[in-house]
Amino acid sequence: MRRQLLIFLVLLPVVIFCRNYVLFYLDQKLLPVSVTVSYDKDDALNFLFDKLAEPVPGTVSFVPRNLLRAYFFVEKALVIDLRSTVLVGIDFQQERYLIHQLLRTVFENFKAIDSVYITVDGKRKDKLVNYVDVRYGFPKQIWSSWPIEGER
């Protein structure tokens, strides 16, 4: 009994301060796969970007390493600033799924966020690389699900 109480007291802070986050990768058919990870420190957004760049076995990710340059919150919006140097040479499919992975993961884990805006190297752009229009914000009501799943 004493040993169980000691174990409980040791694990209690871990359970209280550890938060579970859901990341979205893709399977071989490019359908979403959610994976839950725990993290108990500050700067969860950097952590999520780092984890998205490391797909778990059996999944793929279109999020490159060192993608996130900066971020900030403005009321109920999140502005993420991405590095253009890691986006060079990506095609339509990579660009599209990158956006889907990022937005689905952000909206799943940050419930208070209503929209996400994307800048590149600290500047507003028309397109992320060549295809995806990033002039406007991405609203939660559209992107909190996986809009490109299609019929199953």
Number of helices: 4
The number of domains: 1
Order of helices and strands: HEEHEEHEEH
User: Would you identify the regions where 5 or more consecutive residues have pLDDT less than 50?
Assistant: 5-17
Helix content: 25-40%
Mean pLDDT: 86
Shape: globular
The termini sit apart by 51 Å
Spatial order of the strands forming the largest sheet: 3-4-5-6
Q: Report the structural category.
A: alpha+beta
- Please provide the count of β strands: 6
Into which percentage range does the β-strand content fall?
A: 15-25%
> What summary fits the major beta sheet?
4 strands, mixed
Compute the CA-based radius of gyration: 17 Å
Descriptors for this entry?
single chain; 152 residues; alpha+beta; four-stranded mixed beta sheet; 4 helices
Explain this structure to me?
With 152 residues, the protein is of the alpha+beta class. It has one domain. The protein is built from four helices and six strands, in the order αββαββαββα. It has helices at 2-17, 44-52, 92-109, 140-143, and strands at residues 19-26, 32-39, 68-74, 77-82, 115-120, 138-139. The strands form two sheets. A four-stranded mixed β-sheet has the order 3-4-5-6. The protein has a two-stranded antiparallel ribbon with strand order 1-2. Strand 4 (77-82), helix 3 (92-109) and strand 5 form a beta-alpha-beta unit. The longest helix is centred in the middle third of the chain and has 18 residues, at 92-109. The radius of gyration is 17 Å and the shape is globular. Residues 5-17 have low confidence and may be disordered.
